[in-house]
Amino acid sequence: MNQVVFCVQPSVRAAYQAQQDDVGASLVSVYNQLNHLETHTAAELVRYSAREFAPLIAHMGGERSPWLADYRIKIVDGNCLEASEHRIHELREATGRALPGKSLVVYEPAPGLVTDVFPCENGHAQERSLFGALLKTVEGNDLWIADRNFCTRHLLCAIDQREAFFITREHRGLPFEIVDALHECGRTETGSVAQQRVKVVDAHGQTPLWRRVRITLKHATRDGATIIHILTNLPHRVAGTQVADLSRKRWTLETAFQHLEAYFHSEINTLGSPKAAVFGLCLA
């Protein structure tokens, strides 16, 4: 699989044929092994690699300047291994064909590492079905940066209760009450920034106060929006303009995904099993 992911060989079959005498098992057995690798095994490979690399990067002085002092920043986003017309012929038209799964991926910009992944074999599953696993890893002083799909009352309140922090683009489905009027707080490269306080009622009846940051963009987003709203529970000493800039940097993870596609064979289209496909992504 290393040879396939690092583009030394074009497929698992080609890698097998190149060293068939050394493998000591049939090609069918190799595919059977790949198709039954548990997703938590693939995920642990990512965590293990991050644990091994982080101290080396720190020792060599390779960590990047922190985006925000005193916080451990984690960018989380979903990655979907879609169906493809390039998949093997038998799977293209099958009604019950297996989409090769999806996952939540966590990227930490300071060491420049993907440090965690939460995989799911069901390609039709919603990202929100994986939030429970993600919450188990939330620690105090984490700062989670995410897109609007992560803007749910349950997730944000749970992060807040764990004395961690979030920056997420507002989702229209989140219920909240506006506490005070917007007031201007500066400008960034992308536009003018204003902010206000909002109140959310959690599942236990508690009413945490958060900030709602409005960014009036100089240029519309790719979906045509000229105004976007960001929610955060960061203290007010972190300016609204800083919140806007940190939210914009979320695209760093999109760049990491692009690097996986550009430099590695992270989505092996001929692997029809979700477990095998997720393993290929995690290996990359």
List keywords for this structure.
alpha+beta; 2 domains; 10-stranded mixed sheet; 33% helix
Can you put this structure into words, describing what you see?
- By secondary structure, the chain is of the alpha+beta class.
- It has two domains: 37-147 and 252-284, no CATH class; 166-249, no CATH class.
- It has helices at 2-5, 12-18, 20-23, 27-35, 39-59, 89-92, 131-135, 153-161, 240-248, 251-263, 274-283; strands at 72-80, 102-108, 113-120, 142-146, 165-169, 177-178, 183-187, 191-199, 209-217, 227-232.
- The radius of gyration is 21 Å and the shape is elongated.
- 27% of the residues are buried.
SSE layout and pairing:
Elements lengths: L1 H4 L6 H7 L1 H4 L3 H9 L3 H21 L12 E9 L8 H4 L9 E7 L4 E8 L10 H5 L6 E5 L6 H9 L3 E5 L7 E2 L4 E5 L3 E9 L9 E9 L9 E6 L7 H9 L2 H13 L10 H10 L1
Parallel strand pairs: 1-4, 4-5
Antiparallel strand pairs: 1-2, 2-3, 5-10, 6-8, 7-8, 8-9, 9-10
